[in-house]
Design goal:
Blueprint: E1 30-39, E2 46-56, E3 61-65, H1 72-79, E4 87-92, E5 95-96, H2 102-111, E6 113-117, H3 128-137, H4 143-156, H5 172-184, E7 190-194, H6 202-219, E8 222-226, H7 230-235, E9 238-243, E10 246-247
Parallel strand pairs: 3-8, 3-9, 6-7, 7-8
Antiparallel strand pairs: 1-2, 1-4, 4-5, 9-10
Adenosine-5'-triphosphate binds at residues 39-40, 46, 48, 66, 68-74.
Keywords: ATP-binding, Nucleotide-binding, Transport
GO molecular function, one term: ATP hydrolysis activity
Protein name: ABC transporter ATP-binding protein
Length: 250
């Protein structure tokens, strides 16, 4: 543990306590079965995923590894509902992600899954605090509660002194920490991070990965993090290796 304390004390949704036990405790949070995803067709077809099975338990930090082109981003997008499999099933928190309608996808991304990307994806004209507040604006949360939660999240990622700065006034590592704080704002049950340290130097990348490790423990969420870095992999509970769109047996 790196001294990170949870933010569960400040609910992300008005009238709803964070950290409520799942109705089916003991079941995997993520359950992927026989997932195929092919881009294009005919001779140009690329079989990005060829029958992937994956379980992720609540509270587990899984490193997703594999060579460039092995299907990591495709799998993360399918798990998070950004993309649909051509075959197979994807359940997250008991919901069949592959068959969600548009409203269901919005709910999934607002309430269950949060993404962190290699390129941070912050809104350039907003301050760090305003970026973190974006997911909370989708909720009926009183302004004072929202501000309290944003302050807590920025403190959690060690940026309480940087609340008013815009992304271009922050270093890469600081921007990624803002992105992690934003991802945590809605108390997701699953954090999906696609090479979150890919644009950072080794030391900063390690600090960001250690932060992810710490917030997963503090918040009790699960995380799937794709990475090429062996040191990052060492911080995970388990590594899942993709080779040409298939999971290598453990
Ligand atoms: N939108 C797309 N259209 C066509 N082919 C795609 C598309 N996205 C990915 N692919 C192909 O699917 C395969 C898997 O790509 P994916 O991005 O999932 O790999 P990755 O493991 O994330 O690689 P990297 O480590 O470089 O990020 C690759 O062969 C890629 O070229
Ligand atoms: Mg990728």
């Amino acid at each position: 543990m790196t001294g990170v304390t949870g933010v569960a004390g400040v609910p992300a949704t008005a009238g709803e306590g964070a950290g409520t036990a799942a109705p089916d405790a003991g079941a995997p949070l993520v359950r992927v079965r026989g997932v195929h995803r092919t881009y294009g067709s005919g001779r140009a077809a690329v079989h990005a995923l060829r029958g992937v099975d994956l379980d992720v338990a609540p509270g587990e930090l899984v490193a997703l590894v594999g060579r460039s082109g092995s299907g990591k981003t495709t799998l993360l997008n399918v798990v998070g509902g950004l993309d649909r499999p051509d075959a197979g099933s994807v359940h997250v928190d008991g919901t069949d992600v592959a068959t969600l309608d548009a409203a269901g996808q919005v709910r999934l991304r607002r309430d269950v899954v949060a993404f962190v990307f290699q390129t941070f994806g912050l809104v350039p004209v907003l301050s760090a605090a305003e970026n973190v507040a974006v997911p909370l604006r989708l909720r009926a949360l009183p302004v004072a509660d929202r501000e309290r939660r944003v302050a807590l999240l920025l403190r959690l990622v060690g940026l309480d002194g940087h609340a008013a700065l815009r992304p271009d006034e922050l270093s890469g590592g600081q921007q990624q920490r803002v992105a992690i704080a934003r991802a945590l704002a809605g108390s997701p049950r699953l954090l999906i991070a696609d090479e979150p340290t890919g644009q950072l130097d080794t030391e900063t990348g390690l600090a960001v990965m250690a932060l992810i490790r710490a917030v997963v423990e503090a918040e009790g969420m699960a995380a799937v993090v794709s990475t090429h870095d062996p040191v990052m992999i060492g911080l995970a509970d388990r590594a899942v290796r993709l080779v040409d769109g298939r999971v290598l047996p453990a």
